[in-house]
Each structure stands twice: as C-alpha cells, then as structure tokens.
Design brief:
The protein has one helix and no strands. The protein is an all-alpha fold. It starts with a helix and ends in an 11-residue tail after the last helix.
C-alpha cells in the first residue's frame, strides 16, 4: 500500500515537473511566432511594393 502511494506521488511529481518545463517555454514560443509573423508580413509588403510598376505609385491629386 505504501509503495503504491509513493509510486503515484512520484509519477505526479514527474508529471508536474514536465508540465512546468513546458509552460516555462511558452513565452519564448509566442515571441518567436510573433517575430515570424512580423517578418512574413514585411516580406509580403516588400514583394507587393516590388511588383508595382514605377509610375503606379499613388501621387497626391492637385
């Protein structure tokens, strides 16, 4: 009986340690995803600007 209780709490402590490690990594994952999204958006914007003909840029009307 005692051995079973110790085994259960051992497994729980390992599980909690693993969950804590995973949760500690989440802020870095979110920051990386944000940087990747910004880089992708900038790349698409640069490509769109390159594809426009020279005279197609909007000029203010007088």
């Amino acid at each position: 009986m005692t051995l079973g209780i110790l085994a259960i709490f051992g497994v729980l402590s390992i599980l909690l340690f693993a969950i804590r490690g995973f949760l500690d990594q989440l802020p870095d994952v979110f920051a990386s995803a944000r940087r990747a999204r910004i880089a992708w958006r900038d790349l698409k914007q640069e490509r769109a600007e390159e594809e426009q003909p020279e005279g197609a840029h909007s000029q203010p009307s007088v």
